[in-house]
Amino acid sequence: MNDAFVIEGKMALPYQYFAGAVGSKFLVALRDEKQILGVRCSRCGMVFVPPRQSCERCFSALTEHWVRVESTGEVTGFTVVRYAEPYQPKKPPYVLALIKLDGADTPIAHLLECGDPGRARIGMRVRAVFAGERRANLLAIAHFEEDPAGTQEGHSPARL
Amino acid sequence: MSKNRNAAIIGSGMSEFSSHREDVNQPEMIHEAVIEALRDADIALEDVDCLLHGNMELFEMVHQPDMWHVLGDGARGKSGLRLTTGGTTGITLACAADNLVASGLHDVVLAIGFEKLQEGHTTGGITNMADPLWGRSLQTGALTGTGAQKVIDEFGEERAKLAAMKYRTIMDEHAMRNEKAHRRLRLERQYIKETADNSPPLVGELRMIHMCSQSDGACAVVFASEEKVRALGANPAWIVDHETVHREETMVFGSMLSTQRAAAERLFARAGIANPRGDIDVFEMYDPSAWWGVDWLRDFLLLEGDEHLKMIENDEIVLDGPFPVNPSGGVIASNPIGATALVRVAEAAMQVRGTAGAHQVSKPVRRALASGFGGTLWTVLMLLSKEKPERRVNTHG
Ligand SMILES: [Zn+2]
């Protein structure tokens, strides 16, 4: 059909996001101490990293129960980014992984550098590589790298 | 369609309303309201069968916020729906909660409205409200000058302006008694004229002082079935009925029946309300600006001529007056948009339940009315009562 017209449009989506007191405490410890903090639910026994104000399961308040977890952990899932667009953190191909840190029960998402992206696998032992200049965001950890010698034995989160 | 059973509001909670909530993220802010609502209803999260979640589309530039808000709202493992109908979202949540409970589908429903305007860009969301080909360039949300001009044209500049500022001042007096209210300005009646003249004009005679605030906040309301009310020994505000009316304003300008009057006529006819001012004890109105507050009072109460102006001039709408309007301070004081219309319902229920504290009206409250407003000229009305409704109301009368 030749006479059906299209209205072209474009919209901007500006936003900011308030990390809140809980998210900010995590970011400050990461930036200033190179420490990774979580919170423990004393009822469910779960350790949440990233930290949450309340337990989604039992609704308990968690912010009195901060813990420090290890900067080593295990890949629980990953994807390989192979296309390029302007706002990516690095040049593709690269690996985005879900990493469950030792002492935590929930994973965080971060960059994984393991040489050839094809080497990434679930269960891979990894460790955090902190950035030299750190700001209060997740890129205070530059990326995670493979930690072939690492084991998950005997890690219990330190109470703060 | 008729109700299978009655539903009642048995508790409500609100976060702090403020222009900035840097201390909490979205689920954390919602959590504050949910915890307070559960405590007010004296129930545990386990008692809730279904969660309803709503806010303005795109106002935080977030898609499907209900997904990650589970972290704070308690929705994990429960039935749930997300609803968004613009400014009316909050009261649409209340209507849906009533429907879900009255139908027999769920015994206890928790309705949650929220907005965190500081995080997003409202214009980005609201300009997308209208049809891109026919009406988008006209779209301004509630920032319109016609509301003020209409009242001025009908009643003359001096009387109209005084009525709008008197209304505004009364709302502030009420907000001063509501510790949750966002803007509490301590306006003084003797300086009404100066306050208006010194306020920056927005559109025509709609000035900053007349306009609602931009607030961050959340509201949560617990709805329960008749059987649950009895089993819990709850203090209920029963839902008598609700009505939704809307039309596309950019299509027909002018003399059509207002959605406010249309909604009121239908609801009152079904509920047997012949004299709204006598049969209803308190009204929580979604008043986006003082000018619309003044103008809509006439339509909602089915008044004629200048009866609505006289109500304002004679102090009838004050907290201790014969027909209190917005004991909470209304939308001009606090406007976390996705929560705002649910706050109207919550406040009306608090008046019925006698739990409004420092802004509880002094007269006994048997019936309370709550309204919601949104684009494009949506009106939703909900009628609550102290006494359990006797007859099943036919909601498609
Ligand atoms: Zn828990």
Largest interface: A-B, 21 and 29 residues
DSSP strand content of chain B: 15-25%
| Architecture per CATH nomenclature, i.e. the level-2 architecture of the largest domain in chain B | 3-Layer(aba) Sandwich
Annotated CATH homologous superfamily of the largest domain in chain B: Thiolase/Chalcone synthase
SSE class of chain B = alpha/beta
Structure description:
The complex is a heterodimer of chains A (160) and B (397). Chain A is globular and about 70 Å long. In chain A, strands 4-5-6-8-7 form a five-stranded mixed β-barrel. Chain A is mainly beta. Chain A has one domain. The mean pLDDT of chain B is 93. In chain B, helix 7 crosses helix 12 and helix 12 crosses helix 13. With 397 residues, chain B is of the alpha/beta class. Chain B has 15 helices and eleven strands. The longest helix of chain B is centred in the middle third of the chain and has 19 residues. A nine-stranded mixed beta sheet of chain B has the order 3-2-4-7-1-8-11-10-9. Chain B has two domains: 141 residues, Peroxisomal Thiolase, Chain A, domain 1; 227 residues, Thiolase/Chalcone synthase (Peroxisomal Thiolase, Chain A, domain 1), CATH 3.40.47.10. At the A-B interface, helix 1 of A face helix 1 and helix 3 of B.
